[in-house]
Predict the structure.
Amino acid sequence: MTLVERVHRAVDAAPVVDLHTHLFAPQFGDLNLWGIDELLTYHYLVAETLRAEPDLTPEELFASDKPSQADLIWQSLFVRQSPLSEATSGVKTVLAAFGLDPAAPDLKEARAYFAKQTREEHLEQVLELANVKALAMTNDPTHPKEREYWDAGVKPDPRFHAVLRLDRLIHQDKPELDRWIERMNPRYLAISVEEIEPPSNKVLDACRKYNLPFAMMVGVRRAVNPRLGGAGDGMVVADLSPLAALARHNPDVRFLVTTLARENAHGLCVLARKFSNILPFGCWWFMNNPSLVTETTLMRLELLGPTFVPQHSDARILDQLIYKWRHARHAIAKALVQRYEDMIVPPSNEQIERDAKALMGGIAERWMA
């Protein structure tokens, strides 16, 4: 068996611990999104459709119900043009994984397939096809519908780990961090920001008290085009110098960091070399393209060795786990092969399997323990 085959086999076999998603366990009812209409109306595909159909306005698209939007998106991106983007390619990967025709002229077959599934049955099928053993949710207690579930005492599937999102919570007069940490038992605290701003002492003290990492997703600029709704956000290149100060002054706090701009990826690696309490994780959002995942993983391997988390899915629709992890595994394996080929002594199967397990799940699992 060649080195390429051995690496791809090991990476494919390694169970994933997905460090960041926007998924909900089935116990959250309608917040648990899955199925073909949800897949096709995801904001990645909405933005592509409005670009492919210049005479269609966002207001016209959003005025339709979800199945009508999905039909329009399918015809626009999959029938009338070749589905070459990562988002459209991902839908095709999902359909093929379920034994459905990814070149079908319409959505009848796909809708009939998903209509036969229960939430619980579908969850087991997706996790098996994606080889995901555990994942982190993103939980916002300021969201009225989600809060109802927490207040009612919801107990999520144990494979779905809570994460306390602070974006809106910290702007409340009384954030009640202790209450929500004790109720949710989150694996880390998280915030999405345009530029890094040092968190309040209250947040850092909570990280220390409960031994929780603090995650920062850096570089998103909200509502660049407000007419697109959730598809309208953009990105900026962020100043990472506040992160160095944060890590230096708080050596007892662990920081999970991902950046949206490609230009920030190298600077984040350099900081992680200087501060062991910084963990670069994933290729987020606009970075989640196979070419950039391979490039970024290769750079991180060269600078950090296998001491980072190469990818997270950022999935909002359950079925996205299939394509995001199948595509990511291939991209990550390509980077590993290149580094192994440069080793003076070729790696053993045991070394390759050890590295694959660490990168795909082991490191994330330790940081969420």
